[in-house]
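User: Assemble these into one structure.

Assistant: Restating your components, then the assembled model:
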Amino acid sequence: RKEVEQDPGPFNVPEGATVAFNCTYSNSASQSFFWYRQDCRKEPKLLMSVYSSGNEDGRFTAQLNRASQYISLLIRDSKLSDSATYLCVVNPPTGRRALTFGSGTRLQVQP
Amino acid sequence: GAVVSQHPSRVICKSGTSVKIECRSLDFQATTMFWYRQFPKQSLMLMATSNEGSKATYEQGVEKDKFLINHASLTLSTLTVTSAHPEDSSFYICSANPHRRPNEQYFGPGTRLTVT
C-alpha cells in the first residue's frame, strides 16, 4: 500500500464548478498534512496546510479526518488558473522532516 | 519569504558524463536539505536527506556512489549524478528546512536532466 494515495484524475470541470479531491495516508502517526499545487514542469508550491479543525483560504477548504486517515481539498468557483496537479503531502513522524507526496490529482478547468 | 535556487535549470548531457546540480537557500540557513526526483506523470520521490557537515542519508534503492551529495555549508547542497545514463533523465528538485523554522519546507525550481 502506498503511504499517500490519491485519485490521479484527471478531473475535467467547467469554470465555476466546485470540485473535491480526496487523499488517504497509511501512517496513523503522521504529524502534519499539506496540499501542494504543481504546474507542468515546475516545482510544487504550498497551497495550504491542513488542520484537524478544518481550514479555509478563500475558495479553498481543507479537511482532515485523523480517525479515517483521510484528507480532502474542496475548490469552489473554479477558475481556469486552478488547472494544475494537486499533491496531497504528509510529514511522517520519522523526525527527518522529509515530506511524502501522493502521486497527485490532475485538475483541468475548462471555459 | 524563503527562497531556494537551483542551478542549472536544465541540462542535456551525454551518457557516461557526470552532472552537478546546486541547491542554494538564498535568504536563510538550512541545516537540512532534501533531494527529490520526479519522473513524468509520477510523484516526487525522496532520494536523500542532506545534512550540513555530515554524510547524506539515502533512501532505499538510491545508489550513494552514483548520486553524490555534498552539503558543505548552511546554504549550499550539491547533487552529482555520476556516469549518467538515459534512465537517469528526470526532474530533480531540492528543498530546504529553514534552521529556525524546521516545520516549513521550501522547494527549488527544479533541474531537468536529459541524458542522451
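The mean pLDDT of chain A is 91.
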